[in-house]
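Help needed: design a sequence for this.
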């Protein structure tokens, strides 16, 4: 598990699957970190302390990747040999692109206002709920694609869904900022 690339699913003894139980991941991480806690290495050699520290860093890095759905999907892509350059994931479905533009326009219209009425705040909350559904659906589709590992258009299907997940995740941040602004 040393070197530039690590299979974090193996590190945590998890099945290579997009759908994971984050609570289980947290429990495994906590247990692993207890084993390499600095207090256990007080009387150890510098080499042992350094190895424990490196392993702890690897555990934390793996946890950060696996708990984040986008990073987890990209990690799975790497394990499967799928080109997973984030900047190359592009939505290719015209209807989805138009929908994303519509969502952005709706948010822009609300952000242009100096003060929100209760009705406009309700629209913002509805937009939040709608984008949460887009995110949840993208995650379900990514899980399905990884499970079935359909050979036909695997890369493009996966790329489209990861792109949707990335859009939804980033757009939710924009909505949250708009809500906090008012």
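Sure. Designed sequence:
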């Amino acid at each position: 598990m040393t070197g530039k690339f690590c299979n974090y699913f193996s590190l945590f003894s998890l099945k290579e699957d997009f759908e994971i139980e984050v609570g289980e991941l947290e429990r495994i991480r906590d247990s692993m970190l207890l084993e390499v806690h600095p207090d256990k290495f007080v009387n150890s050699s510098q080499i042992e302390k350094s190895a424990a520290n490196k392993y702890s860093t690897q555990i934390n890095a793996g946890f950060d990747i696996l708990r984040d759905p986008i990073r987890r999907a990209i990690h799975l892509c790497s394990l499967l040999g799928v080109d997973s350059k984030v900047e190359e994931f592009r939505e290719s479905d015209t209807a989805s692109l138009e929908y994303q533009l519509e969502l952005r326009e709706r948010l822009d219209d609300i952000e242009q206002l100096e003060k929100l009425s209760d009705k406009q705040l309700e629209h913002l909350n509805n937009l939040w709920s709608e984008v949460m559904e887009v995110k949840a659906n993208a995650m379900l589709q990514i899980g399905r694609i990884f499970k079935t590992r359909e050979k036909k258009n695997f890369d493009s299907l996966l790329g489209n869904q990861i792109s949707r997940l990335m859009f939804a995740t980033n757009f939710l941040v924009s909505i949250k900022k708009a809500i906090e602004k008012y």
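Residues 54 and 136 are 35 Å apart (CA to CA).
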